[in-house]
Amino acid sequence: MKEPVEQTRAQMVDHMEVQRKTISELQTPVIQVWEGILALPIVGTVDSARAQQMTEALLDRITATGASVVLLDITAVPTVDTAFAKHLIETIAAARLLGTDVMVVGLTTHTALTLVHLGVDLEGVVTRTTMAKGLELAFDRLGLAVVRRAPLVDVAHP
Amino acid sequence: MSRIPVIRVEDVLIATVIEDVTDSDAVALQSELGHQLEARGAKGVLIDLSVVGIVDSFLGRVLAVVATMSRLLGAPTVIAGIQPAVAVTLVELGVRLTGVRTALTSDAGMRMLREGRVGRHVGRR
Amino acid sequence: MSAVAEVIPLAREEDIVTARQRAREISRELGFGAVDQSRIATAVSELARNVLRYAGGAPGDVRIRALDGPSPERVGVEVVVHDEGPGIPDVHAALRDGYTSSGGLGLGLPGARRLMDELTIDTAMGRGTTVTMRKWRR
């Protein structure tokens, strides 16, 4: 039977961990776009601290949802430099250790050339230019297909 | 005898790594798997790390060796249940487990091995 | 500023496990997140193994203590790994990835440096080796 003081200490430590995770999740919007598929839009500049926090939040969501595919969207990243590339590669490597397929979407010709110039090789990482294309591939990986049936009835003008 | 038991289920060799595994235990696991694969073969090897909170470069190295050794002996390896904290640490440490297939849970890992989905190609279903 | 250090002797390979488990527990008690606990414990594991492998059987130990800064944000942990071994002949080489004198992986020291916030080495023939590492809670 723990002493009352020690009990409170342990509770405090657990509480801090929960708080930390909550803050982390609020700052890193990981979206579950489908069962098994997570999307993480990366917006703005990413420094080392933010990169670590993003990675942790992403990995926690992967284990919580059992996701098998993650789409990292870099469309809104202003500068793709060596530091960002390193963070990206590390995030991808960590997610892959959890058994997840990671795809990077949102590449433009500019970012692609920048990566070439920097000598960054995203070898083994599937990339697509848009989220839609990434999603299509993700569905395919999961053995799913989007099928057009009859056109949707216009609710306002039936 | 290693403190990490190796059991055979559906012709897959399963090793559930315990929390406080010493370097000798890790090496013994590698030996044990090698012996079993040589003696009887297997459809695959599943290493469950779900209760392991600390994986350093030594254990990481052993896991990489086991994966390569098993593949050469005809049994693909899946490492299952790597904890998020461990994944981040391994990457920062610089341990490369490239080419080693991983799964979120041992259930998922078993499914992969049972269905023969552990190939050399990148990407999985 | 400092609390009393917990001392874990390094004599057998089981001590590597003891040292890293204690490091993780102490880090947890100090309020470090799960990932930082793993980083600290792993760094301790790497250095403890170095002592057992490369200190030629000389005695060594791990000392872990909490660091209380002037402000609540400055909470951290300090780990000092010491051995009475022959010392590291080329520290700069030892800090480079891949360097090893016995065919191992060579990630121990550079790896630990990446995982911790601060890492300093004091080593010389006859004086043994003392590695001091610190990590601060964010």
Strand coverage percent of chain B:
15-25%
Helix content of chain B: 40-55%
Give the spatial strand order of the biggest sheet of chain C: 1-2-3-5-4
Tell me about the biggest sheet of chain C? 5 strands, antiparallel
Describe the structure.
The complex is a heterotrimer of chains A (158), B (125) and C (138). With 158 residues, chain A is an alpha/beta fold. Chain A contains 5 helices and 5 strands, in the order H-E-E-H-E-H-E-H-E-H. Chain A has helices at 4-27, 48-65, 82-97, 109-118, 131-141; strands at 31-34, 37-41, 69-73, 101-105, 126-128. A 5-stranded mixed β-sheet of chain A has the order 1-2-3-4-5, sandwiched between helices. In chain A, strand 2 (37-41), helix 2 (48-65) and strand 3 (69-73) form a beta-alpha-beta unit. Chain A is globular, with a radius of gyration of 20 Å. Chain B has 125 residues and is α/β, with parallel strands linked by helices. Chain B has a 5-stranded mixed β-sheet, with helices on both faces. In chain B, strand 4, helix 3 and strand 5 (101-103) form a beta-alpha-beta unit. Chain B is globular. Chain C is 36% helix and 28% strand. Chain C contains 4 helices and 5 strands. Chain C has helices at residues 14-29, 34-54, 91-94, 108-115; strands at residues 6-10, 60-68, 75-83, 118-124, 128-136. Chain C has a 5-stranded antiparallel β-sheet with strand order 1-2-3-5-4, covered by helices on one side. The chains are: A alpha/beta (158), B alpha/beta (125), C alpha+beta (138). Chains in contact: A-B, A-C, B-C. The B-C interface holds B 20-24, 53-58, 60-61, 83-86, 88-89, 92-95 and C 13-14, 16-17, 20-21, 24, 34-35, 37-39, 41-42, 45-46, 49, 97, 104-105, 107-108, 110-111, 114-115.
What is the secondary structure topology, with strand pairs?
The complex is a heterotrimer of chains A (158), B (125) and C (138).
Chain A: H1 4-27, E1 31-34, E2 37-41, H2 48-65, E3 69-73, H3 82-97, E4 101-105, H4 109-118, E5 126-128, H5 131-141
Parallel strand pairs in A: 2-3, 3-4, 4-5
Antiparallel strand pairs in A: 1-2
Helix pairs in contact in A: 1-2, 2-3
Chain B: E1 6-9, E2 12-16, H1 23-39, E3 44-48, H2 57-72, E4 77-80, H3 84-93, E5 101-103, H4 106-114
Chain C: E1 6-10, H1 14-29, H2 34-54, E2 60-68, E3 75-83, H3 91-94, H4 108-115, E4 118-124, E5 128-136
Antiparallel strand pairs in C: 1-2, 2-3, 3-5, 4-5
Helix pairs in contact in C: 1-2, 2-4
